[in-house]
Amino acid sequence: MPPKTRKAKQENDEEIEESVEDVKPTKLPETDESFARKFVVAKENTLPSSRIIKLRHPKEGCALFRISEDCFDEILAVNDGHRSFFYGESVISDGTIHLFAPYHPVFVCLPYLQKTSEKFVEISEILIDEQFKAIEELARNQRVLKALEGVCDVKDVLDVQLFRLNNEKMMEWMRKKFDALKKELELDAHKTLLECPDAFDRHVFSFLSDYLHPSLVTSVRLHLNIPEAPVTENIDMSMKRRAPEEDEYENEKPAAKKPKESVQKKKLQAASKGTKNISSFFTKK
Amino acid sequence: MSLKCETERSKTWQDFADGVPCVLGIDEAGRGPVLGPMVYAAAISPLDQKEELKNLGVDDSKALNEARRDEIFEKMQNDEEVQQIVAYAVRCLSPELISCSMLKRHKYSLNEVSHEAAITLIKDALACNVNVVEIKVDTVGPKATYQAKLEKLFPGISIHVTEKADSIYPIVSAASIAAKVTRDFRLRNWNFKEKNVKVPEAGFGSGYPGDPNTKKFLQLSVEPIFGFCSLVRASWKTASAIVEKRCVPDSWEDDEEEGKPQSKKMSGWLQPKNEDGDVAPKKSVYFKDRHMSNVLTF
User: Fold this and answer.
1) How far is A210 from chain B (nearest CA, A)?
2) What does the record give as EC number (chain B) (predicted)?
3) pTM confidence score
């Protein structure tokens, strides 16, 4: 084919564009709600007679939980925003997987139990919340009541059960939870994080803090003896160099200390690559 | 075809000419098109059969048209006498393989892909006991770098990398014929593995982005969700421009890394809120890393 001049080529292109514009791309099928599905991961055979309730979340705000005679789970949504499902002959555009993750009911109850530190109270008086009435369901749940015995003193008075939070018992319980959690996270953790026991403990505690009211976090951290983060961990990961003015004077300080810190810093940085600065969870309130 | 690439050898390639010193030429076909495979071919011929090689007509680039190429290649494939003079091997890189290499996390440029194909062919000849004494190659990318790369890999062999090698060296012309005819055949006889691919009445053309039939085919066949069929090199700008224009908008997890704008629907994901003013808790690093959050509705 003889080479086309630029003008001729452009005209030709436009012609093609025009004729092709008539050929619209295939229309997408209309959304059909009858194909809508939710995907849930839950313990086998536990879905029947479950209820989904909204409760005050011990950490902050509120969230949905699943409760049944045998189960109490936090409902977690897993989705990075870029997923869909192929389901039979349909596509479910929402790629969220819902996890019914087992959640110890004591965590939810603890903030309510705090008000019984002095005296024994009936459970129906403890688990009460104007804003989130569903907490009353836990008061009726045998499994929950049994679980509360792990952190409370219980007194039976005239066929009525009374509960009083026992701080020592609770701390013991926290210790057990922490140790069990630590064992599990060890299987998952990055090698360099495991090499630094203090940082790893902080990592485990940060996970546990998600289950605790902020007021409880301080006392539990103290009881578990979680070491404070050293100053070097507070350095913003994005900062590559210190300001020149500071450097002049820092050079006078013991040089021996520096290499150790930077090696540790490198290890910690490597371990927490891509994660939020851990020490941000321990800022003084 | 797909992601595998195998070396296909002609009848006399293995142990060619009983180890007599040979020249090896390499050329490719189908580098520029947006459709179909790219084919790399190597041709070998004994040094003492230069005349016989020329007499096949591989030399005469002015006379070489599609019909003539087909004729010569047919002899290379089937004529016993010709097979003593020249043997060849080809490597067919599918459109998918080309696109994948260019789009992976560790990107391989088309030049790197080309070099790799050429090198594999040379190694194959050596492994098949061909006594390669000279190599003639058409340039791909910077000439000096390519030459140095080859000299390092194949010491003791006389190597020449030049532009228009197919006009200068008959052996490269022979390789060029093998590559072109193979490519044309595979393109013409393409078997769509996808169902119901829309092809215009006039066919999909030569596969070059400037070919109006090819353009029409691209516009017509693109699927709004899945993009192009495997005949198309998705990594080509021609193709991706059409996807941009005619496919549903998409977002990918690594758009963030590549600095592309984020899709709006991700905002508010990390801390769900609802109309009642309820707020779900912010999650710790463990959960955030795994894109896990509490929910307020189910």
Assistant:
1) 6
2) 3.1.26.4
3) 0.62
